[in-house]
Amino acid sequence: MTIKNVMVIGAGQMGAGIAQVFAQAGFDVKLNDLSEEALQKGLATMEKFLSRNVEKGRMTEEEKTETLNRVETTSTLNDANDRDLVIEAVVENMDVKTKVFQQLDQITPKHAILATNTSSLPITDIAAVTERPEQVIGMHFMNPVPVMKLVEVIRAIQTSDETYQTVEETAKALGKSPVEVNDYPGFVSNRVLMPMINEAIYTVYEGVAEPEAVDEVLKLGMNHPMGPLTLADFIGLDTCLYIMEVLYEGFGDTKYRPCPLLKKYVSAGWLGKKSGRGFYVYE
Ligand SMILES: NC(=O)c1ccc[n+]([C@@H]2O[C@H](COP(=O)([O-])OP(=O)(O)OC[C@H]3O[C@@H](n4cnc5c(N)ncnc54)[C@H](O)[C@@H]3O)[C@@H](O)[C@H]2O)c1
Question: Which residues contact 149 (CB under 8 A, 6 or more apart)?
Answer without folding.
Answer: 175, 176, 177
